[in-house]
Write a structure and sequence with these properties.
2 copies of one chain form a homodimer.
Chain A (H helix, E strand, L loop, with lengths): L4 E8 L3 H11 L6 E5 L4 E8 L6 E8 L5 H8 L5 E8 L3 H10 L10 E2 L5 E5 L9 E5 L1
Chain lengths: 139, 139
């Protein structure tokens, strides 16, 4: 396995429209679309950084329920948003997960599951990475 | 201003050699070099994600002193490492800072200063970004 690019960085926010005031209007990025991921109880907004090909994105994550994982993250973070996870893109997610498993790496998702934007994703446990919530993504 | 790419993601770690066990040996990335940034009291290691051009990097940050900003970050984070900042690359950092200042954005660095790898950098205050420590970088 050799992750190819930073697929995206996930940022927990209280409100996507409010967050876009900064990321779009102040900073000059463009929101490519908002999507609800019902089983994670979040709305997501992707902002591609178009200066590289293939490009990386920022992902804003707004909880749609108080028991959303993102709501819980913000609760622990003194009610504030902040950087939530980093996603690296791999060519073959099944093979990557099998390799990590064989190396004894603690996984949150043992099998690929559907993420936002039609990607297949899996999370690695922060205990395995020195405190980083790491996602692997295949598009 | 229109940031072009994710320049890098900064990850606080207790020990770069220990962290490389995961990021290099387990995950398959390659460390492009280790550099000490004396005035920030850190050692940094850059791991380029070579699947895009220009490419983004992971930056591991190991404190070299107990009063390093990275040591303080880990202290607040229950002694653990984790995602510390995200850096977006801009073409003209002086112009970007002037634009942000005119928009009333709270800056940590009002002027560009030297970062690792010969980049000129400046940090924006997390209060302005919804809790993200954001760096702008010009190379």
């Amino acid at each position: 396995m050799k992750p190819a690019i930073i697929d995206h960085i996930g940022i927990a926010v209280k409100s996507i429209p409010e967050a876009l005031e900064f990321w779009e209007k102040t900073l000059g990025l463009e929101c490519a679309g908002v999507e609800e991921v019902a089983d994670q109880k979040v709305k997501t907004a992707f902002l591609p950084l178009k200066g590289s090909a293939p490009c990386s994105e920022l992902e804003l994550l707004e909880p749609t329920s108080d028991d959303s994982p993102i709501a819980k993250f913000m609760e622990k973070n003194n009610g504030r948003g902040g950087m939530h996870h980093v996603a690296l893109r791999v060519d073959d997610l099944e093979a990557a997960l099998a390799e990590l498993k064989s190396k004894g790496v603690r996984l949150i998702d043992e099998k690929p599951r559907k993420g936002a934007g039609g990607a297949m994703i899996a999370f690695i446990h922060p205990a395995a990475t020195g405190g980083v919530l790491l996602e692997l993504s295949q598009r």
